[in-house]
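Reader question, answered in our methods column.
A reader sent in the components of a multi-part assembly and asked whether the whole thing could be modeled at once rather than chain by chain. We filled in our standard form and ran it. Here is what they sent:
COMPLEX SIZE: two components
ENTRIES:
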Amino acid sequence: MILEEYIDKAVWERIESFSQEKETPFLVIDLDTIRKNYVELKQGFSNADIYYAVKANPNEEVLKLLNDLGSSFDAASIYEIDKLLKIGVSPDRISFGNTIKKISSIKYAYEKGIRLFTTDSRSDLINISRYAPNSKVFIRLIVEGALTADWPLARKFGCSIEEVKNIIDLSETLDVEVYGLSFHVGSQQRNVFMWDYALLKVKDIFEWAFNEKGITIKSINMGGGLPSKYLNKADELDIYSEKIKESIANHFKDNEPRIILEPGRSLVGNSGVIVSEVVLVSKKSELEHYRWVYVDVGKFNGLIETMDECIKYPIYCSSTGSHEEDTEEVILAGPTCDSVDIMYEKYMYSLPLSLKEGDRIYWLSTGAYTSSYCSVEFNGFPPMKAYCI
Amino acid sequence: MILEEYIDKAVWERIESFSQEKETPFLVIDLDTIRKNYVELKQGFSNADIYYAVKANPNEEVLKLLNDLGSSFDAASIYEIDKLLKIGVSPDRISFGNTIKKISSIKYAYEKGIRLFTTDSRSDLINISRYAPNSKVFIRLIVEGALTADWPLARKFGCSIEEVKNIIDLSETLDVEVYGLSFHVGSQQRNVFMWDYALLKVKDIFEWAFNEKGITIKSINMGGGLPSKYLNKADELDIYSEKIKESIANHFKDNEPRIILEPGRSLVGNSGVIVSEVVLVSKKSELEHYRWVYVDVGKFNGLIETMDECIKYPIYCSSTGSHEEDTEEVILAGPTCDSVDIMYEKYMYSLPLSLKEGDRIYWLSTGAYTSSYCSVEFNGFPPMKAYCI
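And here is the structure of the entire assembly that came back:
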């Protein structure tokens, strides 16, 4: 692996130097990388409002940085809302984006001043109208991004065009404002055309609402989905921003709606490196073709997105420091007594033949969806530590 | 679902009554059920030593109960060892059963008095010999249980017969005692013949060791695997104990080895009930055949073993209290903004048509491998609470 393809040299040196002498496993988050990503995203989508998807990395220092940079926030639960309020985010910069919420959560959010919600069902809309009256609501449309996203989101959230229309119909009898439509093309969506397809559907509903109902819908929440840097190739951010802006211009001409983005992975993904240690290298039999490399991080303490090998992280070994060395394909597994705790056995990583216990393995682009997924104590292992630098 | 097929009526009433008025989601563990399971297991395998697999449920009250009942313990990490020592378990009743361990962990365990280890590789054996000299070692054989177990364990742990022999060879030059062979037929193994196949292999190695090396191996660690009560049918414990004892007698005749069992699921599985609440019932489209039922427990706060729908928990709804009511197949999903957080969409549970938000759904047989797997804060949700009664 060529390190420089995945991480800026200065960032790498900062992280590696910070990591010396610390007991593995742990996650290092480089805040400057997040700052840089935020600025780039703002430049790419200058007219869009950015609502950072807290779930991607709820580390308090990350939230504070993004708050200082002027970001708004997308919260998945009342617990995330509390966390945001605690660090001083004002409620008008928080969206309650989870379409699945208890009445008690809607009430709680409303009491705390939240007035922006997302829904994909009539029963949830009724609850919002009743317990968060006069709020703005995004209606989430189901789109077909699941077909090409590395971590698909399509099946569980959103509803059909027909059901979006039913919800708009219903909204007219309720105390809510249909503020916009939302969609999510799937997390780590590498195919830029998926946004175009989704925008076409949105436009269709906008026209229907205006022509049939006299309702002007003001905004589009395009969710997240912009890719981070993993092994599967994705384009640079500017390709996505150019193409998506082109789609918006094509579909909406002079009536460009307000755009909201909810980036998670694309803002924090490449800011993180998990530092792990090789616990054991072994073969099950002399005749077996592959060595097993067990490390002290696994599916249940940070690498859950290796489930079905969806996300393929760039991996860097420090065993020799040389890139020239002989390598061999290995099976990579975690430290627990659970055989589901295997990260990669279909996709084979080539690691140095000289790899041995105690060597460090660095998991690049692990700033998103790692530490918050850690199990509380599976096999007794404590959740992975995280450091911001 | 007929409740009484999965849970004793008195236990159910105890749990249901305790659960009233408590905020969901939470796990209730009935300690009497664990006591009963332990006594039954001791009766079924009167000559065996029981090492409870702490990872199945590391709740301190559960560990204390089993300690009081005389159980020994199988620990997967130094953290579990610490937890056991803290409640007063003496180190000679603890086995360090994880074949994947750091040198620092071996040292730590040895310092704490642990003298029983499991290994499946030569490099780990060398580490044990060096950092835990004079300890007893189980060598773990790979067996084919993965083919039929609901939560397979075969691929990641254990080694081939040939490699077991290599490890025995190597042990002669080291400061360790090959105390026994171990195997694990896979967790929630419902096919009793898998134990027979494994025992045949063990016998073969015992004979080789005696005839070729003059080594008498004294014991067999049969790991866990005995099933708990889920939807997929399994036999009662006495069928397994009878058949397994028959296999041992057949293979070993008058030279019956010492038997160790490491039950986890079979001891605590049916002691637990997760109490959850319906958050939302919706359809993505009027034309869709299935309703989605979202509850406040999911893959990342307790139900990770629904991954690939491996474990099918018995589910009981309180919506009407009547079993006669009309039901309909639904998709069952968790509360997070992650579409991987769907419990069942291939296997369809039939739940009452009248099911609505706020109704309780009880997940039976959730005493094992639930609370310890909870994520620390995915989507901000706190880990599920657990109560012992």
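What stands out: The CA atoms of residues 51 and 298 of chain A lie 30 Å apart. Chain A touches chain B through 82 residues (CB under 8 Å).
Send us your own complexes using the same form.
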